[in-house]
Amino acid sequence: MGEPTQNPALERLRAAVRDQWGDLSPSERNVAEYLAHCSPEQVLFASAQDLGAAIGTSNATVVRTLQRLGLGGLAALKRDIAGDFSTDVAPEVRLRQRIEQVGQDLDGIRARVYDEAGERLEHGRANLDAEEFRRAVELIAGAAEVFAYGVGASELAGRHLALKLNRMGRRARFVGSTGFGFADDLLTLRREDVVVMFVPGRLLRDMEVLFERARMLGATVVVITDELVGRLADDADVVLYAPHTPTGITAEALTGIVLSDALLLAVASLDEARSVEHSHQLTVLRERLLEPKEGRPRR
User: Fold this and answer.
1) Cβ atoms of residues 47 and 59 within 8 Å
2) Looking at the predicted structure, is the pLDDT value of residue 246 above 80?
3) Residue 210: is its pLDDT beyond 90?
4) Closest alpha carbon to 270 in 161, 121, 136
5) Residue 240's closest CA among 97, 106, 135?
6) Any residues with CB less than 8 A from the CB of 150 and at least 6 apart, and which?
7) pLDDT per residue over 15-74, tens digit each?
8) Helices of type H across the chain
9) Long-range contacts of 99-102 (CB under 8 A, 24+ apart)
10) What distance, in Å, lies between the first and last C-alpha atoms of the chain?
11) Which of 198, 191, 253, 190 is closest to 222 using CA atoms?
C-alpha cells in the first residue's frame, strides 16, 4: 500500500496500535496492521464487511479490534477521519472519490449505502445520553410552541419535527431563514417556547444570535448536533448527539430525522389520547379533501 497517508485520526490509530500491540490477538494484529497502512479514502468508503474481506477476517473482528484500541468502532473512526479529510479536500474532489470508490456495481452501491446508514444509526444510538434524551422529551412536551430551526441539509429534520408535532396536537413551527429575514422569526420567540436546533457541525452567526435571543427571553434550547456536543454543552439546556455522514454517501439529515422520530414517539406516549384524537382529526380532514366518489355506473 505504500507509505501511510498523513491524517491526524489515522496517526492516532497508528499510535494506539504501537502502544497496544502486545495486548492484541493474532487476528486483531492483522486488522490493526492493515488499517495502519490504509489511506483515509480506504477507511471512509469501506464497511466492516469490506475491510474484513480484504484482511481475510470477519467484520466482527474489525469492529472488536477498533474497540480494543479505544477508537469506539468503525463509525467513530470514520467520523474522526472525515473531520480532517473534508477540511483538506475540495468538495468536487471528494465527490469524484466517492464515485470512484463505489464504481458501477449496483449491488455494491446498494450495500454501501445501507451499511453506512446502519453504522451511523448504531453509532448514534450507542452514544445518545439517556438522561439528556429524557430531559428533551419533557421540555418538548411542556412547550407552548416548539421553534424547530435548521438550515441547509438540516432543514429536512427541522421540517419533519415540526410537521409531526403539529399532527399530534403540539404547536410547532419550522424556521429555516437566515440573515435580516431571520429577525422577524426571532421577534416572535417567547419565554415559554422551546427551541430545537439542528446544528451538525458549524455554528453560524444566525445560530449564535438565536442562542442570545433565547437566553434573553428565558426560552429553553435543545441542540441536536455531531461535532459541537462539547462546545454547546454550557449554552444549551440539552444537547443530543446525531452523527453526520463521514462520506456524503448517506443523507446528512438521516440521524437527525431518526432521533426526531424517537423524540416524537416519546412525546406522544405522554398523552396518548391527545395524539390519537389529532391523528383521527387529520384522517377526517384528508378524507374531506378527496374528490367525491363517483356513483356506480349504470349497467
Assistant:
1) yes
2) no
3) yes
4) 136
5) 135
6) 156, 157, 158, 159, 174, 176, 197, 198, 256
7) 999 999 988 999 999 999 998 888 887 788 788 888 888 899 998 898 889 888 888 788
8) 8-20, 26-36, 40-44, 48-55, 59-68, 74-88, 91-102, 106-126, 130-141, 155-167, 182-187, 205-217, 254-270, 272-289
9) 101/41, 101/45, 102/45, 102/249
10) 77
11) 198
Q: Give the distance between the most distant pair of CA atoms in the chain.
A: 86
Q: Supply the pTM of this predicted model.
A: 0.75
Cell (9 digits) for 82: 472525515
What is d(CA 228, CA 241) in angstroms, rounded to the nearest whole number? 9
Query: What is the rounded distance in angstroms from the CA atom of residue 30 to the CA atom of residue 14?
Result: 13
Laid out side by side, the sheet with 146-149 consists of: 172-175, 146-149, 194-199, 220-225, 238-241
Cβ(173)–Cβ(206) below 8 Å = no
Instruction: For 111-148, write each residue's pLDDT tens digit.
Output: 888 988 998 899 899 889 999 999 999 999 999 999 99
**Cell numbers given for 18:** 504501537
